[in-house]
Amino acid sequence: MTGRSVGVFRQALAEFARPGASGVTGASLWRAGQVAIALAIVVTNMVGAVVVVVMGTLVIPMPTIRNFAHVRAVDTLAAAAYVIVAVVIGVLVGIRGLFRLRDWLVAERPATETEVRIVLRAPVRLFVVQMVLWAAAAVVFGVLNWHYSSTLGLRVAVAVLLTGLSTAACAYLLTERLLRPAAARALATGAPDRLAVPGVAARAVLAWALGTGVPVTGLVLIGVAELTTASGAHTKLAIAVIVLGAISLTVGLLAAGVAARATADPVDAVRRGLRRVQEGDLGVAVPVYDGTQLGQLQLGFNRMVEGLAERERIREALGIYLDPDIAERVVNEGTRLEGEEVEVTVMFVDVRNFTTFAEGRPAQQVVATLNRLFSAIVPIVHREGGRVDKFVGDGLLAVFGAPRKLADHADRALAAAVAIADAVHGELEIGIGLNSGRVVAGNVGGSGRLEFSVIGDVVNTAARVEGVTRSTGDVILLAEATKELLRQPWPALIERDEFSLKGKATPVALYAHPASVDGG
User: Fold this and answer.
1) What pLDDT digit, counting tens, does each position of 238-252 carry?
2) How confident is the model at residue 520 (pLDDT cuts 50, 70, 90)?
3) How much is the CA Rg of the chain, to the nearest whole Å?
4) Cβ–Cβ under 8 Å, residues 344 and 408
5) Quick one: which of 178, 148, 151 has its CA closest to 16?
6) Mean pLDDT across the stretch 157-165?
7) Phi, psi of 418 (to 5 degrees)
8) Is 208 a domain residue?
9) What's the rounded Cα separation, in Å, for the pair 432 and 516?
10) How many whole angstroms separate alpha carbon 469 and alpha carbon 459?
11) Count of structural domains within the chain
């Protein structure tokens, strides 16, 4: 074995011990998994065959028949042949059922729902295959020995069937352990809504059946067999074996079931709580009533939900005072939003003659009127993918294209302006100015107080363009820079005279949207 092969082998062993921690490739996991599962099937069935021979030879009382040595020789040869055939069939069928996973593992891609089900149900499938083979063996050897004695045939069939149940259960538990690395990869994107395999309680009862149920059942059946054929001296012993075995089975199953439910109930409670959290209910809490690790799981779940609820409250609070896009980025990425140069369209909305409007009116009425105005404007800005940068007294500055980049920011800004002009009626008249260009977007501030904003001449020009609406009588004016970026077919824009804007060395060409001319 080469050094590389040894390394891959060690990685695979580490992956089986701690799924997801070794970094082994999917292709290596597929090869190692094939070998491991094949060995599990071979070893468990070989051990089962040895157990049957030992039980038939030394443990289970057999009836006295002629030529018993001949019968034993026939059974041994038949068992050897059957084990070889059964093991080959078990390995081929067991591994073949997993071949649909090869492409997924090698491709290192997320598993489909079908592949998840195959991984999770593989142990159950192998259990069924093993039980079918052992049940067939029970029939074959029962019929083979019935030829010599009906009692012998029945006892051999029962011994084979009970041993097969233990072997299949052992193979199930072992295969489930070996498939954990594949299951970890399959469930990396989420667990199925419905349980695809036996739950915690079923596993516990299966483990009890493997360790206690099957052996004690065999003991009870031996007692029944002795009771039907034994002499009077053995009758009391047979009765004692049957009674004690029946009590052990009944009490053991009850105890295993209660213990299993004690484990499963807290887990089910947490699972139901998780489903409610996924549905958006952050007020859920599970009762903490277990003093073991399960209680820690319950408590951890409740603390997790409390943290999620607190995070959501922070998000909602930020959403009141910040634009939703900024609030989302602050929650997800923190406050280190580095500045970057981006192309945007800036919208400036202002109320005309606001000073005259505010004179002689109570402050509460003035604020309420402004809030009604902004309540109509802000949803339109958000609907078109824009962001309200700030409220400036009776004005509003909105940005389309930062922090969320938009290829059609100019069209979205103009669409928002037209919708705002249509929506605002009544006590206040507004002017809207649009300008496009490159700005610097990022955090501005200091001493623990930051504001995400856009900085540049484009912003100042948008405010100056809005100021010109007072001279032209238009509701919407856009600079030539915005007009040149429009992609959608708009009604013919009306060109206004070039205006010399404050801070601009050359006049700026302006255009009015026809629906807003003269307040129209």
Assistant:
1) 665 666 566 556 655
2) very low
3) 39
4) no
5) 178
6) 77
7) -65, -45
8) no
9) 10
10) 16
11) 2
CA 380 – CA 415 distance, rounded (Å)? 9
Contact 416, 379 (CB under 8 A): no
Encode pLDDT of 10-41 as tens digits. Answer: 666 666 666 655 567 777 777 777 788 788 87
Residue 129 covered by a domain: yes
Helix axes 68-96, 150-178, angle to 10 degrees: 30
Q: How far apart are CA 467 and CA 178, in angstroms?
A: 73
Residue 465's domain comprises: 340-519
Cβ atoms < 10 Å from Cβ of 113: 10
Distance CA 131, CA 123 (A): 12
Q: Which residues contact 213 (CB under 8 A, 6 or more apart)?
A: 249, 252, 253
Residue 209 contacts residue 165 (beta carbons within 8 Å):
yes
Pairing state between β 476-479 and 510-512? antiparallel
| In the predicted structure, residue 195 carries a pLDDT above the cut 60 | no
Torsion of CA 108, 111, 114, 116, to 10 degrees: 110
Instruction: Classify residue 445 as left (phi > 0), alpha (psi -120 to 50) or beta.
Output: left
Residues making up the chain, counted from first to last: 520
Q: Which helix (H) or strand (E) holds 133?
A: helix 113-146
Burial of 244-267, coded b for 16+ CB within 10 Å and e otherwise, reads: ebeebbeebbeebeeebeebbebe
**Residue 490 DSSP SS3:** coil
Rounded to two decimals, the pTM is 0.49
Q: DSSP 3-state assignment of 435?
A: strand
Cα torsion 69, 70, 71, 76 to 10°: value is 90
Cα 352 from Cα 513, distance rounded (Å): 18
Residue 368 belongs to a domain with what CATH number? 3.30.70.1230
DSSP secondary structure letters along 142-191: HHHHHTT-HHHHHHHHHHHHHHHHHHHHHHHHHHHHHTHHHHHHHGGG--
At which of 162, 192, 222 does a domain end?
192
Final residue belonging to a domain, choices 138, 168, 192:
192
Cβ neighbours around 417 below 10 Å, total: 28
Q: Which residues pair with 52 in a beta bridge?
A: none
| Paired strand residues for 495 | 511
Q: Which of 307, 308, 298, 300 is nearest to 270 (CA)?
A: 298
Task: Answer whether 482's CB lies under 8 Å from 414's CB.
Answer: yes
What is the predicted pLDDT for the residue at 427?
A: 67
Looking at the domain assignment, is residue 290 inside a domain?
no
CA atoms within 13 A on the CB side of 78: 16
Contacts made by residues 84-91, CB under 8 angstroms, sequence distance 24+? 86/45, 86/133, 86/134, 86/136, 86/137, 87/41, 87/42, 87/45, 87/46, 89/133, 90/41, 90/45, 90/126, 90/129, 90/130, 90/133, 91/38, 91/41, 91/42
**Which amino acid belongs to residue 470?**
R
Q: Mention every residue, 6+ apart, whose C-beta is less than 8 A from residue 458.
A: 344, 346, 435, 436, 437, 438, 439, 481
In-domain check, residue 165 = yes
